[in-house]
Give the backbone structure.
Amino acid sequence: MSELVLVINAGSSSIKFSLFETGAADPVLLFKGLADGIYVDPKFVAKDAADNKLVSESMPADMPKNHDSALRHMLAWLNSHINGRHIAAIGHRVVHGGLNFCHPVRITEEVLKGLDETVPLAPLHAPHNIMPMRVLAQLLPNVPQVACFDTAFHRTQPELEQQYALPYEFSEQHGIRRYGFHGLSYEYIASVLPTIDAKAAAGRTVVAHLGNGSSMAALLNGVCQATTMGFTALEGLPMGTRCGTIDPALVLHFMSHLKMDVAQIEELMYKKSGLLGMSGISSDMRDLHASKDPHAKFAVDYFAHRVVREAASLAAAMQGFDALVFTAGIGENDDIARATVCNELRWMGVELNEVENAKRSGEPRCISLPSSRIPVYIIPTNEELMIARHALKCVAA
């Protein structure tokens, strides 16, 4: 009987899960879903691999409104749907691996202590990534767990790309450097690109992971050479609600002249900026495209222009590039944003196939003309599958 691998992606108020079946060449998705609104109004949703909703319910009112209860509810539902099979491994998405975690690692007490030390590097994410590991160790003590890090893929960057122009003590003693994020997404794209364009996979590829959180990376033979995010997931491109790169002295200005405190500045830069802040309407590209407000169009144009600027910067890091890949929510689904980016890159030899770009499809495809010097692709990402692969490999090892 085939075994199962559970993938967990825990946030501050939600826990996303995916359950994969093993036995085939690659793990196969069975179920996915999430527990959301954990501390306010907890709800549980589960779907099958075809995205058909199997359950959508409020969690029992007598259950405590916390992650522990959400995990118990999720496991109870899974146990009632796996027909006696057992979970062979659990993989966790961990946003930050710090200096010490450069590869997926099996979770032990010693590893948990090391993960606790990364909390100051990602205080908004790390505690929520780590907490389910301890809960599941109690609920499923015999099931091995594996931590998979979004920063790990970028540790191959040259040292020139990883450092800030600060005294070395800040990097060596305090771990302040350019880590990069969305690494599991880039790693997945690198794993499937050889079957789509072997030449690009062996050469220089710019990947644009564009979604509510957005970043880009330069891959040389599938290995990261540069990326737009840095010490935090705030640097680089503007995003749904995050500002992206700004003059760091603005923070000093906010504090000294506008009398804003740390919490207010954090709220501004992480939750009130980006597409939402610039448009004053929404963080969702679909809403902005539908709006006639000039601020909405300006926000969309600004976002696309910054993608173009970063694409050119990443090209410089590799002395050119041989392919461009769009992925994640905006990258996979927003033909207007893709067209705007590609049209601004015509000077580099990008020629967009408007018919292919406008199609709606969940499959990888080329959206550039045969005459385009740089082929352009849409490749749906799959971070959960990447985590499942890592979990199985770690447990087998």
Q: What stands out?
A: The first strand starts at residue 4 and ends at 10. The radius of gyration is 21 Å. DSSP finds 16 helices and 14 strands in the chain. The CA atoms of residues 91 and 388 lie 6 Å apart.
